[in-house]
């Protein structure tokens, strides 16, 4: 080879290599600066720094996609504008029901006040709350409610799956619309992607049903809107007076994710009649107004129905990014700290941060009977390994861990001293606590808590308790995978 050409090629290679090194250094440094510029939990920040430094191209791409919590500039402006209008209504509700909190035992008032803060809704008396635990029976009851509806049906879900009795629900909604019932359906774009690709949206719209796609994923807009920030709520409102909510999506467990190898999903829902139903409809109306581009102002509200004499004291609790930031996290932390005798958590996905872990361990060490119920098999391998990384510390502090083997336990609940229950769509992980739009019902009633306790006992009867001694002897490679997955836990 020509010596001059050889020198030229070597210099060119050296120049390009140095240019790549400088570019790599500048990009990584820039994104580390971006990560540091946003005040976030230390574990989350270090996890992102580790990913960006170790896998620069993939790490930077992931950070652009899911590193921040934006929902898009235009949607953020709309949410903030409507939240001002929404807050006027919630403040009015809080004034109307200001005296209801005094009906609670003094030890329960702090949680109700926290849930009400930052534009939340108040605790209200006079409700009828029923716990339903069989998914197929729930689907049939939803169909019965739809068939009996006279004025309106508002449905909001993360997933509407195709097939089985979920299709029967769709047919019932079409029939209701054709007989004059005002029907609105709000579904998450990602969770219900298969439904939106099917013939159902066109069939609904042709029948006069209003359909809105929440947080649509748009290629090319990832830099403006976080792709994995989702509408995770489950709300079904009938005639403004009856509400269903809980952990169950609009799915038939016999056909949903049958190839995941975890068995049927196990869910529970509550049916609510009374004044608190208006709070759920208010949240639906807010979500509908935000996600429907044709609506520019929020003023949709039906007055609460009359209370039932001697009914249940309850409170709706909505949370999400942009508005009500971190209130859900604060509520969960407060609930754990408030427990005096017993605390039971059921969740399909377990990924607490250091603060929640310390609260759980402290509660167990001060004598509270803390029980965590999670599925033995999980549809997410990474989440399963990451969840197990927390076991050792929990077991050492006295927390009992039960692994449910009757399917994928999808029920999300927190029972405090068998006197207060938090029940809804919230998983005990960072995604639910800080990222997704979630919904819960807080119930301050001994009878309801007793029924929830019976459900919990039925789960425990189908569970294996993790033996601390056997767990300590698990293979070394298990620990390695758990700890590796644990590094991603702040991001799951």
Summarize this structure as a short list of keywords or feature phrases:
492 residues; alpha/beta; 15-stranded mixed β-sheet; two-stranded parallel ribbon; 18 helices; globular
Q: What's the end-to-end separation, in Å?
A: 54 Å
Instruction: Compute the number of strand runs.
Output: 19
Shape: globular
Helix content: 40-55%
The poorly predicted ranges are 220-224
**Count of helical regions:** 18
Overview of the structural elements:
With 492 residues, the protein is of the alpha/beta class. The protein contains 18 helices and 19 strands. It has helices at residues 3-37, 42-54, 56-66, 73-96, 109-116, 135-148, 165-178, 193-197, 200-206, 276-291, 327-338, 354-365, 381-388, 391-397, 430-435, 446-461, 468-472, 476-486; strands at residues 124-132, 152-157, 182-188, 210-214, 235-238, 242-246, 265-266, 269-273, 312-319, 342-346, 350-351, 369-375, 400-404, 408-409, 412-416, 420-424, 428-429, 438-444, 463-465. The strands form three sheets. It has a 15-stranded mixed beta sheet, with helices on both faces. Strands 7-14 form a two-stranded parallel ribbon. Strands 11-17 form a two-stranded parallel sheet. Strand 5 and strand 6 form a beta hairpin. The longest helix has 35 residues, at 3-37. The chain is globular and about 65 Å long. The protein starts with a helix and ends in a 6-residue tail after the last helix.
């Amino acid at each position: 080879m020509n010596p001059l050409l050889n020198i030229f090629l070597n210099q060119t290679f050296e120049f390009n290599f140095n240019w790549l090194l400088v570019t790599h250094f500048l990009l990584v440094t820039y994104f580390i600066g971006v990560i540091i510029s946003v005040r976030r939990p230390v574990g989350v920040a270090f996890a992102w720094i580790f990913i960006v430094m170790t896998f620069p191209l993939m790490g930077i791409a992931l950070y652009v996609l899911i590193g921040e919590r934006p929902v898009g500039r235009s949607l953020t402006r709309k949410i903030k504008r409507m939240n001002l209008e929404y807050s006027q209504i919630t403040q009015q509700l809080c004034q109307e029901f200001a005296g209801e909190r005094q009906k609670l035992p003094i030890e329960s008032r702090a949680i109700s006040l926290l849930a009400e803060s930052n534009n939340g809704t108040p605790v209200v008396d006079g409700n009828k709350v029923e716990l339903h635990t069989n998914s197929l029976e729930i689907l049939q009851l939803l169909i019965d409610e739809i068939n009996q509806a006279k004025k309106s049906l508002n449905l909001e879900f993360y997933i509407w799956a195709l097939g089985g009795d979920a299709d029967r629900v769709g047919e019932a909604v079409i029939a209701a619309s054709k007989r004059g019932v005002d029907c609105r359906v709000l579904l998450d774009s990602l969770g219900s992607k298969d439904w939106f690709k099917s013939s159902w949206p066109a069939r609904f719209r042709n029948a006069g049903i209003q359909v809105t796609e929440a947080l649509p994923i748009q290629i090319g807009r990832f830099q403006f809107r976080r792709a994995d920030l989702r509408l995770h709520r489950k709300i079904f409102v009938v005639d403004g007076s009856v509400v269903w909510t809980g952990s169950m999506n609009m799915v038939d467990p016999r056909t949903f994710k049958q190839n995941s190898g975890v068995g049927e999903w196990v869910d529970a829902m509550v049916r609510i009649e009374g004044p608190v139903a208006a709070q759920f409809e208010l949240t639906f109306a807010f979500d509908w107004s935000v996600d429907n581009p044709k609506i520019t102002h929020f003023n949709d509200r039906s007055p609460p129905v009359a209370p039932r004499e001697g009914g249940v004291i309850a409170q709706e609790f909505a949370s999400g990014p942009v508005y009500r930031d971190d209130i859900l996290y604060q509520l969960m932390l407060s609930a754990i700290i408030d427990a005096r005798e017993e605390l039971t958590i059921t969740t399909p996905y377990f990924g607490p941060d250091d603060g929640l872990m310390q609260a759980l361990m402290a509660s167990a060490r001060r004598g509270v009977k803390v029980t965590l119920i999670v599925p033995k098999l999980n549809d997410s391998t990474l989440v399963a390994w990451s969840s197990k990384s927390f076991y050792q510390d929990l077991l050492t502090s006295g927390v009992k861990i039960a692994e449910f083997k009757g399917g994928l336990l999808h029920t999300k609940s927190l029972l405090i001293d068998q006197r207060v229950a938090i029940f809804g769509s919230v998983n005990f992980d960072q995604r639910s606590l800080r990222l997704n739009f979630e919904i819960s019902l807080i119930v301050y009633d001994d009878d309801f808590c007793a029924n929830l306790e019976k459900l919990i006992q039925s789960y425990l009867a189908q569970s294996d308790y993790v033996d601390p001694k056997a767990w300590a002897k698990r293979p070394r490679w298990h620990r390695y995978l758990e700890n590796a997955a644990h590094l991603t836990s702040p991001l799951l």
